[in-house]
Fold this protein.
Amino acid sequence: MKSVTERFLTYIKHPTTSDESSHTIPSTRQQRLFADFLVEECIAIGLADASVDRHGYVMASLPATAPHAPSIGFIAHMDTSPDAVGEQIKPHIVHNYDGGIIPLNGISLTPEDFPELRQYIGETLITTDGTTLLGADDKAGIAEILTAVEYLAQHPEIPHGRIAIAFTPDEEIGRGADHFDLAKFRADFAYTIDGGKIGELEFENFNAAQAVIHITGRSVHPGTAKNTMVNAALIGTEIVSMLPEREIPSKTDGYEGFFHLCSFTGTVSEATLTYIIRDFHKETFENRKNLLKLIIERKNIQYPNAIQLEMHDQYYNMISQLSDRMEIIDLAKNAMEQCGIEPIIQPIRGGTDGARLSFLGLPCPNLFAGGHNFHGPYEYIPISSMEKAVQMLIKIAELSAALDFPKKL
């Protein structure tokens, strides 16, 4: 039986960066190649029904040893973030971490910058080499799921219901649930294994919208521009200045929402601003969107019809779908505690495939995968966190067989 570490180090060798500008499904061919590889991995541990569909979704299942028990799903995503280089990953293994600075290529992991490092003194860490991300988001989740399912397959004396697993493409660009086949998956409820540090248990997430602001200017020679030039780039800066300056990601935490300027390109002739809008509460989420609409309306009075706003909702807070299914949360919490893990119940300051799947009818909170500092070269993961995640998944399967869950399938 492969260890979770062996699996993880194998999986991060497969580059799977997603591409938001792509119109293919999945967005990159590399993800499809990894999907084919994972089907072989599933078959090798005895999941005979493993397959990949035309959209690149890998699904497989382990038959129940306790037929009365609910069918549980475990889900992770195959792609890595386009925010950082995801190819030619060269992991560094730090044995018996001493609590000091970890030098990498051109950068350093320091406990001053990342205080949570001090929690792992004496443990073995896997870091980047400083030039790429690591890929623990979410190849750690994939490795943990397959290691746990292989263990259950080899120990049929452990009672559990049918275990459904799925590995999705393009989660990092918000498309991970677009073509998820719920009928094929056939789970009563599920968990995404896509959280951060050990203990994270999340069933609240942001409400999310994207806004793209297009500005059309009028370019004339600056020497004769009085009362004639309309500078699109300057209009963009005016719009930015009208939004609350403290309601941005770097100045908010907890349940505080924000406006995040993702990109701003502009000249005198034209400019484009892309924002994401995030808030946990439905009312204030709507207020944020309405504020941006009002700003654009007022600017279009000042600069007649120069600005176009395209805004759409992306996903919603899953708590509205899980508040009457708290037994699913309690199951994960109890499993953690029985594995010696202290649950950390907190909101996700982001999104998850589980949020969209919950609104599609599959209750799906999020559990830790164990990594830190995702999406960049400071990413690392303690091996012990991955091992504990495997234990937790096995325990969830076992505990569910003894509880009276409503079955819908």
